[in-house]
Each structure stands twice: as C-alpha cells, then as structure tokens.
Amino acid sequence: MDNDEFAKKLLEAFAIEAGEHVETITKGVIELEKTPAGGRLKELIESTFRAAHSLKGAAHAVNRPDVESVCQVLEGVFAVWKRQPEPVSADDCDVLSAAIDVVGNQLADGAFSESAAGRHAAREIIARLHAIESGHAPHTATQPPAAPEQPPPAAPAAPAAPAAPAASAAPAAPAPPPHEHAEAEKTVHADTVRVPVAKMNSLLRKAEGMIGVKLATRRYAVELRGVGTLVDTWRAEWGRTRDEAGGKDGHTSGSAELLTAFIDWNRDFMQGVEDRLTALTKAIEADERGVTTAVDDLLADAKDLLLLPFAMLLDIFPKQIRDLAREQGKEIALVLEGRDVQIDKRILDEMKDALIHLVRNAIDHGIEKPDARAARGKSRGGTLTIAVSRREGNRIAIDVSDNGAGIGVEKVKAAAIRQGAVSEEEAAAMGNEEALQLIFQSGVTTSAIITEISGRGLGMAIVREKVERLGGHIAIESQPGAGTTFRILLPVTLATFKGLVVTAAAQTFVIPTSGVEQIARVKRDAIRTVENRPTLILNDRVVSLALLSDVLELPATSAQQESAVVEIVVIGAAEKRVAFVVDEVLTEQEVLVKPLTRPLVRVRNVASAAVLGAGTPVLVLNSADLLKSAAKISGAALGAYGTAGAEKEKARKRSVLVADDSVTSRMLLKNILEAAGYLVTTAVDGVEAFGTLQRGKFDILVTDGEMPRMGGFELTAKIRADRRLGELPVVIVTALGSAEDRDRGIEAGANAYIVKSTFDQNNLIDIMRKLIA
C-alpha cells in the first residue's frame, strides 16, 4: 500500500471515529444542562472530557490542527469542571453547543477551516471557551491537568451512552435514571460491527442479482414440465396412428408388422426419454428449492446489513431542538420512542431532511411561548414527540407530535386562496380534514413572515414528495389548542416490494401495491360524465376515471376502445383517488427494484425500474405522480369512453337543482341524476339554493334536510310562500328518519321525503319521473 492510499484510509477511519466522538460530546452537553449536582454529574463530565480528549488526539494523528485547537480548549473546560463538579448553566451550554457546531463544520468541510469565516468562527469560539475555563463564567479558573503522554488509542473510545428516550431542551427537565441510560446503550450498540457502506451495497447488488437466477430456474422447471406434457400428447397421437395402421378388418400386412415393430421400438425410446425428463425435472425442482432458499437467505442477510436503528437519526434532534428552543425563548421537552426500530439505511438518509423540517415546523409554528401557553391554561413547557413503531405489512410508522396550538384551518384556507391553490368557493366547501391537506401544496404557508426556519411554503410539499418517492404516505391530524401529529408510513427496505403488474398501450408496467385500493372489471356503460369528467361509482363513492395510456402519453389500443368491459386499478392517496383503465391486470408479485441513474433520476410518473420473472425490465410507476397527472387529463382524452355520456346529453330535457352541504352526497346525487338524463346544478346550502332558483328556471329541487344557514325544511317552506316558485316539486333526501321529521317535511310542503339510510337510486329516479313526467 503506497503512502497516498494509506493516508486516504487513515482519513476515512478518522472521519468515522470523529463522528462518534462528536456524538458523545453532543449527548454529554445535552445531559449536563439538565443534570443537578450528584454522582451522575461527575460521570457525565468525565465521559464528555474523555471524548474531547480522544478527538483531539485523533485530529493530531491525521494533521488536523483546526479540529485539534478547538478540542484542546474544550478539553480544558471539562478538566476544570472535573475538579469542581457543579451544575452547568444554560449559558455555558450555549457556548459548548456552538463549539460542537464549529467542530462539526470543520469535519464536514475541510475548506471551511481555511476560509475567513471558518478562521473567525474558530477564534471566536476558542475565546469564549477560554472565558469559561479561566473563570469569566461562573466557574473558578483552574489549571487543567496535562494531557496523558501516551498516544491516542488505536481503536476509538467506546461511545458514551446515547440520550435517553425522553430528552428536554428546558434546563429544569429531569434526567433519566442511570439504569435506563445503560439499557439504551445495550439496545443500540450491542453486537454491532463497523462495515463500509460500499461493501454493504456491493453485497446487496450481488444478492439482488441472484434473484434473476432464482426466477430463471423456476421458469426452466415450468418449461420442462411443459415438455413432459408434449411427450404425453405425442404418445397418445402415436397410439391412435398404430390403431389405424392395424386396419379396420383386424388383418395386418407385412408393412403393418414393420410399422408395429417400429412403434414398439419408438415406444421404448420414448420411455427412455420420458424417464430422463422425469429425473431431470425432479433434479431441477430440487435445485430450484435450494437456490430459492439460498437466495432468500442471502438477500435477507444483505438487507440486514443495511438496516440501522432509528437511533442513528433520532440522536441528532436533542441538540437541534435545544438550540432552537433557546433561540425562540421556548421551553420544549423532547420525547424519543422506538430508537431500536430497524429500517433501511437508504430510507433513513432520505428521511433526515424531511424529519428535520417537521421538527422545526413544530417548534416555529406549533408550540407556543411559555407565557402564551400559561395564558391558555397549559403548562409553560411544550412537548415534542418523535415515535417510531413497526406496523403490519413490513412497514414503519413515524409520528411527529406536539402539544402546541394546532393548525388553524381557516388560516390554511386563506393562504391557499392567496396562493391560487383553491378558489374561495372550493375552500368554503372543504371540511377540516380536506383543508389540512392544503398545507402540502407548494407555496401555502400560514407564517406571517419568512424566517430561516419556515415561512416559504415549500417545506411541506417537499416532505410529501420525499415520502411518496420512497413508497410511503403522510397524513396529518390537528386539534385547535391541543396540538398536531404528522404520521408517516414507510417501507422497511427499498430492495424489493409487492407490485401489481399491468399492461397499457401494449406495454408492461408495475404499480406499487401500497398505493392500490381496488382492482375491478366494470361495464363500459357504467361510466358517466360528471362536470365534464368520466367517473364511476365505486363503494358508494364517485371516482374519477382516466386511461393509464393517456396519463403516460401513450397511444390507446383498439382493445381498450372496443371492449364492453374494462379493467381498472384504483389508486388512492389521502383524499384523492382515481380509477385507471388498463389493458390487463396480469399478476401481483415481489418486484426487484433497480434505481434509475442519471440523467433519469426524476422522471414524471416513473419511480424506478424493476426486473420481472423472466428477466424482463419494466418501469415502476409513481402512484403520487399518476394522481397528479390524471387531474390534468381532460374528459375528452377518454375518446370512446365519452360515448355513453354523449348519448345521455341528447335526452336531457329537465333541469334539477341539488342542494346539499356534503360534497360526497352532492356529487353522488349529481352523478345519479345526470346518468338518468337530467341537467343538474348544485348548491351548498338553502340560501345559495334559493338564490339560484330566483335567477334560473328549474323543474325540480332535490335538497338535504339539514344544512348550514338554511336547511331543506326552511327552504321548502320559503319556496311554497314564493309566488313564482310555489308549485316547484321538492324532494327532501335526508338522514332524519323519525316520524316527527317526516311530518315536518310534509308540513313544509315537500312532495317526497327519502331517508338516506334506506336510499335507493332507482327509487329516487322513479319519484322524479312521477313528479316531472
């Protein structure tokens, strides 16, 4: 090994060791800030001192004087505190935290130390550390002991115990008992080895390559079984030929005898071939089982190498939250749960920025300042919880929760209207859950000003895009005054996943099963047009329809346009769902993922590539992108699917006004009536409905019984009192089913009263036809 190669490996080892020491120092400072006088205080100072000393020695060994100089003074501060162990003030911890930041910047970017900003930062933090060491801070100056003369240890010092599950950014928060601290260390660090990521990735690629061998072996076994079937067919055919050669009268000629002899010989030959094929088939089937087991075990072991505990990510948050809380004058206790839950390192790396953004949002927007919390009758200190847990289906749940002010739905709506994400009418019709989804729209923010932490309206959109690109899903729950929870569901690993194999435009694609809600075959004449978009009614819900080939900008096949029955795949995320028409749903199977490489890292509607059983490469579609792309496809793009709607258009002679405050009920009624040939207009409550009736001409009103501002009963009575509208037929469709409610409807003047719990669309249409022939 030459000197350059040795120096490179030495620096790689230093980077790993330095990261462990910085982590230990960081945890030590966080613990020191909230630890009162006592035996544990001395233990913490000692472990943090050792980490600073070891980092100083390692930096000296690789000729990093920039890191060494800061660690020298940092070690001196801890040396002073070792001699006089007293509780550490928050101000002193501010200085130590800033010193850790400087060292972190130096380690992350060697050029930082050579820059003017880097040199200034190092000089300033060294001066502040000297101030603490020399007694300008509340500690008495003491000459630190001389550093040990022995060289730094060859192996890195064992890391100090990790932060306990409950950490706090408030100085008064209690420290966890020592036994909990020790148990956490055992959970995370027991039986671990340091393996370079490059080696893990190489092993995983080799294991993934073996999947092709497994699938090919399975295919060969199927083909050999097919050959055996052909032999059976051949034997049956020759038997028939032999019978015919024997003659109908039962007499045989000499040629018949020769033919018989040939057939006998051929029979023996085929028997030998059959025996060999049978033996070969059994051998290959046995090999298939062995290879399958070996590959599955190898892949499982390779995946395990890339599975890391969430502690690797969670441990960055105590310091971050502590520093942000201090900057904003807030008291925040951090609770970490599920530190030992394992997940793919690649997912862990990708989720780092997303979780940081959620945490910073919770601090900036969610948790109030102490006085504001006290004024609302809450504790002065807020709590931020990051909880990780395993879920069914080989998935991980991450909950980021705070007990702050919650999200103001009306503020979100107003921000979305200003941004142009929704209209005022659309915002007014939204429920709370639907409105909360607006925060994931790019540019939507409730922050009054833009800060370095938040306010640009881009972060949440990026968070959702990151989660969905990993094959996950994010949901939100918020209660005014009580707090907010973001729940993220992610796969445990990215190597393989369950996928639905479909064809569209005569090409094969894979749709991740995690995004598929339903697979069905529907008749073409069940497709209706609602607001100029083709739709279906599935499970009592109106679902938009789109051709997968149109969304992917591929030519539709003639089979799609001529078939009386179509196959659909319903994809859903949050409140959105679309039924995609495909040529054929082939199968569901485990799919081997092959990440896209540059320049195809981010292709619209495509998540990655995959390899199917026969070694065929296919594209894995991005479910979230498909939903967005489908929303941009106009109804006309469905071509032949608009035929049923066009035929109904000719029959529309009667005009109906539907009044219902529920978006779902309103759309369902509109769809049913339009499918029956009526021209339908909608209103969100009785006030809007009455105004619409005043301005236009309608043949009948279908209204809900209870609505904001004016319900169906009041609306009906008002119509009966109006000279022009008094004779308008009214049908009340409501959830109110008591006899008293029915009497109210009759007294108000309704022509028909339908209870939603027993609703039948055919009954509604029959009533409509009776009232307006």
Keyword list:
50% helix, 6-stranded mixed β-sheet, alpha/beta, 26 helices
How would you describe what is shown here?
The protein is flat and about 100 Å long. It is of the alpha/beta class and 773 residues long. β22 (700-703), α24 (712-720) and β23 (730-734) form a beta-alpha-beta unit. The model is unreliable at 136-191, 448-457, 635-640 and 642-652 (pLDDT under 50). It contains 26 helices and 24 strands. The strands form five sheets. Strands 1-3-5-6-8-7 form a six-stranded mixed β-sheet, with helices on one face.
Question: How is the topology of this model organized?
Answer:
Blueprint: H1 3-33, H2 39-61, H3 65-83, H4 90-108, H5 110-114, H6 116-133, E1 166-168, H7 178-189, H8 197-245, H9 254-306, E2 307-309, H10 311-314, H11 317-328, E3 332-337, E4 342-344, H12 345-366, H13 370-375, E5 382-391, E6 395-402, H14 409-419, H15 424-429, H16 432-436, H17 459-469, E7 473-479, E8 483-491, E9 496-504, E10 507-512, E11 516-523, E12 528-530, E13 533-538, E14 541-547, H18 548-551, H19 558-562, E15 565-573, E16 576-582, E17 584-594, E18 606-611, E19 617-621, H20 623-631, H21 643-650, E20 655-659, H22 663-675, E21 679-683, H23 686-695, E22 700-703, H24 712-720, E23 730-734, H25 739-748, E24 752-755, H26 761-771
